[in-house]
Amino acid sequence: MKKAFAMTLASCLLCFFCFAQAPLVSGSPIPASHGQPASKAEKSMFLEGTVESVSVADIHKETKSEITITDTAGIKESFLIKATTTIYDAASGAANLDSIKNGNKVKIKYVTTNEGLKEAVSITRLS
């Protein structure tokens, strides 16, 4: 019985020291990204254009929501639409993604992630 108790106690102490984390030294800085998702580019950009397509996320097909527009120079750009993307109608009221159709004029505020993806922060339907 004493041998079993000693083995259990030794196992507990070994686990305690193996899984212990280094203590945070008082006054040491915590990185800005500590506990935060990967940071995005600092600067928000805007782009106006005509909607070419809008796709809604489908978990079965493993696709994400996305909008593709053509700007005035004829260049197509695609933007990831996240759950945090805000959508506005022409009167600056709240709207949903279903209200944006092909051919609508829109203004998109977006950021470019460190991975190079363009994420829509807000979408405003202009017409």
What's the structural blueprint in terms of helices and strands?
Elements: H1 2-18, E1 45-55, E2 66-70, E3 76-88, E4 105-112, E5 118-125
Parallel strand pairs: 3-5
Antiparallel strand pairs: 1-2, 1-4, 2-3, 4-5
Describe the structure.
By secondary structure, the chain is mainly beta. It is built from 1 helix and 5 strands. A 5-stranded mixed beta barrel has the order 1-2-3-5-4. The protein is elongated and about 80 Å long.
Radius of gyration: 25 Å
The beta-strand count equals 5
Contiguous low-pLDDT stretches (5 residues minimum) are: 24-41
Tally of helical runs: 1
Q: Let me know the average pLDDT.
A: 81
> What shape does the CA trace take?
elongated
Structure class: mainly beta
- The share of residues in extended strands comes to 35-45%
Strand order of the largest sheet: 1-2-3-5-4
> What is the terminal separation in angstroms?
82 Å
The residue fraction in helices comes out at: 10-25%
Biggest sheet descriptor? 5 strands, mixed, barrel
The SSE string, one letter per element, is HEEEEE
Characteristic key phrases:
127 residues; mainly beta; five-stranded mixed beta barrel; 35% strand; elongated
TL;DR?
This protein is mainly β.
